[in-house]
Automatic annotation (TrEMBL):
It comes from the Eukaryota. Residues 1-32 form the signal peptide. This is Uncharacterized protein. InterPro entries: At4g14100-like. Keywords: Signal. The keyword Signal applies. It comes from Ambrosia artemisiifolia.
Length: 218
């Protein structure tokens, strides 16, 4: 059961990062920077700390460093009750890309404006549960981005840094080297439904085909 859930987490995030690679037109590669962390302070804990579950609804502004040296901002709107996870990416000096992920497994990726494009993808798995870090392996404490954090690793896929004092997430890294730094974290913030309505051109098949070829060149 746990394995099944772990796989779902892995597939969800994996599908996401694979898609990002696709969008950036990059070959896959495995980064090794997160696997070996000699600077971690491992102290003796009677009870190892466990990660704080994600709030059911929050808004976070993320500063993301992609493996390509490209940077982007993401407005992350996680909403478990509404069954959606929204990323609005501002690529540095580039496009704004909407990524609307639904718990039924369907995700929409689209841009707005003159050369608007859309791609609909069925990943077959839902969004991460608020407790998706359950069972993560505790690694110890480290100062990152200037905050003293507890660090966990889960299924060699995500490295998660949580502020020791406030219990807020500070940073998370994926196995492929994409690193997200949490700049704001507003618990309870909800994105209006109107923003997440996929545009009409997402539902026209030939456009979808063209969208994928266009987006892959971005
Ligand atoms: C992005 O990450 C790479 C690899 O860790 C690092 O060398 C680079 O300095 C980072 N860039 C920024 C702007 O954070
Ligand atoms: C999943 O939900 C979204 C939003 O309600 C909808 O647009 C999409 O068609 C649904 N996908 C499936 C496979 O039902
Ligand atoms: C998709 O692209 C092809 C070739 O560039 C073009 O002929 C076709 O009209 C496009 N379809 C749509 C819906 O834009």
């Amino acid at each position: 059961m746990t394995t099944n859930m772990d796989n779902n987490i892995k597939i969800t995030f994996q599908a996401f990062s694979v898609l990002i690679f696709f969008l950036l037109h990059l070959p896959n590669h495995v980064a090794s920077n997160t696997n070996n962390e000699p600077w971690l302070t491992t102290t003796e804990h009677e009870h190892e700390p466990t990660p704080t579950p994600w709030p059911e609804q929050f808004h976070a502004l993320l500063y993301m460093n992609l493996t390509t040296t490209h940077l982007q901002l993401s407005d992350l709107w996680y909403d478990w009750p509404k069954g959606r996870n929204v990323n609005i990416f501002q690529k540095q000096l580039g496009i704004v890309l909407y990524d609307i992920e639904w718990n039924n497994g369907t995700s929409f990726y689209y841009t707005l404006g003159a050369d608007a494009q859309c791609q609909m993808v069925d990943f077959g798995v839902g969004i991460p549960r608020p407790d998706f870090l359950d069972g993560a392996h505790y690694l110890g404490q480290v100062v990152t981005d200037g905050f003293l954090c507890n660090v966990w690793e889960k299924v060699e896929f995500i490295w998660y840094y949580e502020d020791v004092v406030t219990k807020r997430p500070v940073r998370w890294d994926f196995y492929d080297g994409i690193s997200s730094h949490v700049m704001t974290f507003e618990v309870g913030a909800v994105l209006p439904d109107s923003v997440v309505q996929a545009p009409a051109y997402c539902f026209i098949d030939p456009a979808v085909e063209n969208a994928s070829s266009t987006l892959s060149r971005v």
